[in-house]
Amino acid sequence: MKWKVALIAAAVLTAVGTLSACGSSGVETLHPTIGDIQDTVDESGTVYYADDYAIVPTVGGRITACNFDVGDAVEQGATLYTIDDTDISYQNASAQIALDSANAAYDQAAKAADDLGVKTYVSGMVTEVYCNTGDYVMTGSKVAQVVDNTHLKLKLAYADIEKIHVGSVASVTVTGDSEAFAGTVTKIYDQKTVFSGHQTGVYVEISFNNPGALISGESATATIGGIPPVASGTIEYATDASVYSTGTGLVTAITSGAGSSVSSGSVILRIKNDAVTAAVTNAQLSVANAQEALRQLQGQLDHYTIKAPVSGTILQRIAKVSDLASPGVTMASLSSGDTVNVQVDVDEKYIAKVAVGQSATITLTSDIGGASYTGVVREISDSGTVTNGVTYYTVKVALDRQEGLKDGMNVDASILTAEKKDCLLVPKSCILNGSQIEVLENGKTVTKDVVVGITDGANAEIVSGLSETDNVISK
């Protein structure tokens, strides 16, 4: 590319008028003129869709499906490509197994930690605790006794068993006490038992609520429907259970001492075991790491299905089925609309003049009539591209109209970088050493220092050091 100035220069010369010329002593001179001047950067460019999207994968692999063709209209989220995900799917399955294993290890560690709180699984009253705070207990050690002294039972044998059924009401009396209270038959045994005097009977279990302060071991009897037992029996607690340690360690607290009322699941004592506690922490970390590994792999799996980022029209399809997709390499492109802009590559020598908001004139290179469009600089790239040793920077121009333009068309672009009106002008060729002009005074050549403003390639603005009446020596 090159900086094109011929057309603009011709236009400016027309605007300011023909510079006057005169001759003296065989030297051709001219007078500066008053006129307008524009400084432009002129380059070739290309029309492109303003809202186009490159379809670029973030993963690599063999393309197994391509669901579109050039010119197709696609909806946002539609699947465009599918990339073979066999390897990543296998990694996901392995990661899921690792997470399941980590969760199982955590559950086991948590259960061991929970077992450091030794619980009773029957309701009642703690009658005995067999250890003290500071004692070291082992798993399986008997640590407490719990009884249900609210609910009692009595086992008696009856000869006339045919009239007794589960649910039958019994009248219970304690030996030495004439007051009776109600009970209920809850169990009838299968086999008969021989008692003294060759009398036989079947054992029956009667349950009843403690009417007062009865305790296990007291002698009692009961009639069922008026039927007396073969012999008296002994009251027992409905529940009389030992509590065993579910962990190994140092007893740090007795939470339910002797005499305490407890329900199923109540903690009797607590044990300290640092190894078990540390195992829980480590298991938690293992689960978190396994979850994160699986999350990342699942996120990667999504990348093997390439979807349309927006609704639009396919402009280009580069990759096809069985091709090898590579991360960062464009597979296709699509446009989300019909708006086109112009992309111009500006030589590094002139890019400093260009700024966002400057106006530009665009001309189709293929149009003999020179159809032109106007626009505004919308964006200037910060990084350049080197071509044949020259760095070019991409400048994007937004157009005021779109008619007749299609993606890929070649254009000439003229970006207006500066403009002055009613200024003193001389041909650019008259300027020597960048800041001097020779004039003819009294038949002699005199060199004047001048301040040069903007130029358009043919003419230059003289800011100071020269007047309209000076006879500038033509070069």
Describe this structure in words.
The protein is mainly beta. The chain has four domains: 6-50 and 339-473, Elongation Factor Tu (Ef-tu), domain 3 (Beta Barrel); 52-84 and 304-335, RNA polymerase II/Efflux pump adaptor protein, barrel-sandwich hybrid domain (OB fold (Dihydrolipoamide Acetyltransferase, E2P)), CATH 2.40.50.100; 90-115 and 274-301; 118-272, no CATH class. Helices cover 15% and strands 49% of the residues. The protein is built from three helices and 34 strands. The strands form seven sheets. The chain has a six-stranded antiparallel β-barrel with strand order 3-24-28-26-25-29. Strands 11-14-13-12-15-16 form a six-stranded antiparallel β-barrel. It has a four-stranded antiparallel β-sheet with strand order 4-23-21-6, with no helix packed on it. A hairpin with a 2-residue loop joins strand 1 (20-24) and strand 2 (27-31). The longest helix is centred in the N-terminal third of the chain and has 29 residues, at 86-114. The radius of gyration is 52 Å and the shape is rod-shaped. Mean pLDDT is 90; it is low at 1-24.
Which short descriptors sum up this protein?
3 helices; single chain; six-stranded antiparallel β-barrel; 4 domains; mainly beta; 475 residues; six-stranded antiparallel beta barrel; Elongation Factor Tu (Ef-tu), domain 3; OB fold (Dihydrolipoamide Acetyltransferase, E2P); disordered N terminus
